[in-house]
Amino acid sequence: MATEMALVKPISKFGTSSPIFSNSRYGKFTTVRMSSTSQSTAKAAAKGGKKAAKTAIKETLLTPRFYTTDFDEMEALFNTEINKNLNQSEFEALLQEFKTDYNQTHFVRNKEFKEAADKIDGPLRQIFVEFLERSCTAEFSGFLLYKELGRRLKKTNPVVAEIFSLMSRDEARHAGFLNKGLSDFNLALDLGFLTKARKYTFFKPKFIFYATYLSEKIGYWRYITIYRHLKENPEYQCYPIFKYFENWCQDENRHGDFFSALLKAQPQFLNDWKAKLWSRFFCLSVYVTMYLNDCQRTAFYEGIGLDTKEFDMHVIIEVRFWFHCYSVRPWHITFNEL
Ligand SMILES: [Fe+2]
Ligand SMILES: [Fe+2]
Q1: Are 290 and 314 in contact (CB under 8 A)?
Q2: Cα–ligand 2 centroid distance for 65 (angstroms)
Q3: Which ligand is nearest to the CA of 254?
Q4: Residue 20 Cα to ligand 2 middle (Å)
Q5: Residue 47 clears pLDDT 70, i.e. is over it
Q6: Where exactly are the structural domains of the chain?
Q7: Ligand 1 centroid, distance to 139 Cα (angstroms)
Q8: How far apart are CA 244 and CA 191, in angstroms?
Q9: pTM here?
Q10: Which of 15, 171, 218, 226 is the most exposed place for a label (fewest CB within 10 A)?
Q11: CA 66 – ligand 1 centroid, Å
Q12: How far is CA 46 from CA 4, 154, 227, in A?
C-alpha cells in the first residue's frame, strides 16, 4: 500500500516556496517505537533526545492504520470449489509477473541520501521526518496484511496465497527503504514493536478489497506525479528518495491490478445496489482522507514545489480517468460514477 506517499503527471501550477537547506547536523541515533505523527514527537526525535523514544503516539482519525479481516471468510472466497468465478489462469499469469520481481535490485541507497538529509533544516526537516514515518507505517501496514493473507490462504488457494506473499515482499522492501531514509535523520521506526503494540482496525473482506484496490491505484498516481514533477523541476529535488518513485510506483500498480482481478472474481461485491453504494462510499472516504491528510501537510508539498490542492485534484482526476479508460466492467463504472 502507499496512500501516504504521493503521486503522476506534471501539474500546471506549483507553489513558489523553495526547499530550505542548511548544514546543521543532528545528534545520536534514536529509535522511535511508535509512529510519531505529532510534530512535537518528530521534533524531539530529530534532536536525538532520549525522550523521543518514549513519546506516546498521537493517534488521530487520519493516522495510517493497520488492518485485519475475517480470514475464514477470505478462505471461503478463494476456495475454487465454492467460488466458480475464480479465474485461476489469470491469477497464474499475475503470479509469473510477481515472480519476475522487476524491482529486486532497484532499492539500493547511496551516499547522496545522508548528504541531502543533512542539508534539510528548519520546519521542512520536521515535516520530512513525519512524511517518512507515515509512509513507512502505511507501507508496513500493507506488508502485515498481505503477509497474513498469504499465510492463511496457502491451503485454500496456493496461487493467490503466493501472490499475497510476493506483494508482502514488495511492501516490506518499500517500508524498509523508508525506514533507512529515517536513519539519514538519525531516527528509526521500531517495526517489531509497532506490529505488537498498534491497534488493528477490522474490515470485512469486501471493504478490504475496496480500500486496498483504491489505495494501491491512488498510491501509483501519487508516486508517479511526484516523480515527474521533480524530474521537470530538479531544483526541488531535495532528497533522493523521490528518484526511486518511477519503478517503485510500478509495484503499486501491479498490486492494484491484482486486486482488480480479485474483485472481478467476487461479483457479489460489485453488482448489487448495496455494493454500488459501499464502493462509492469508499471512493469518497479514501479521497477525503487523502485530501485532509495532505492539507495538514502543505509545508511538505510546498517544500518540493507542489501546490497541495492541485496535486490532490490531479491524482483524483487521473484515478477516475484511469478507471474510465481502462475499465469496462460494471464495478469499475460504479467507482467512476462517484
Ligand atoms: Fe508499497
Ligand atoms: Fe502496494
Answers
A1: no
A2: 14
A3: 2
A4: 31
A5: no
A6: 66-331
A7: 5
A8: 22
A9: 0.81
A10: 15
A11: 14
A12: 21, 42, 26
